[in-house]
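Workshop exercise sheet. Pairs work together: one partner reads the sequence aloud, the other fills in the structure field after running the prediction. Swap roles for the next sheet.
Pair: D.N. / O.F.
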Amino acid sequence: MLSLREVGKNLGLRTTIRNSMTLVEKTRQGLQPTTFSKMARNLEVDEKTLSAIVSISERTVSRAKKDHKLLPPPISGKLIEIAKVLTLATEVFEERDSAIAWLKDDCLALGNVTPLSLLDTPQGNEIVIDELYAIEYGNFA
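Structure field:
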């Protein structure tokens, strides 16, 4: 079962995520721009790569940091979804390094693309989650 506490840690949140409604509230409020940097570090990717996945320019993130503004809800929501995928992958592979390697390596079951590259759309996110559950429960196509 997905640990919401770990989702919060992956986002670098200081508050504990107790339930899914807390994530809804965080999405609606917008996340701190430092969350973006924390997520990039946790995924072991540069901010340019993460910018492309969540559809925001590096300049916009930089400006939000400088002006102490929250990230917009759509971007916050994408970051939360990516944190959920990272958390699930870590649970499935039982260690972060293996989870990150899987996210960054081409996956035959996903059409020989990296799972990380699919996280730019809700459908791709769902496909990656489905594949993680297939791995966890041994249901390979």
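Discussion prompt: Residues 4-137 form one domain. What would you look at next?
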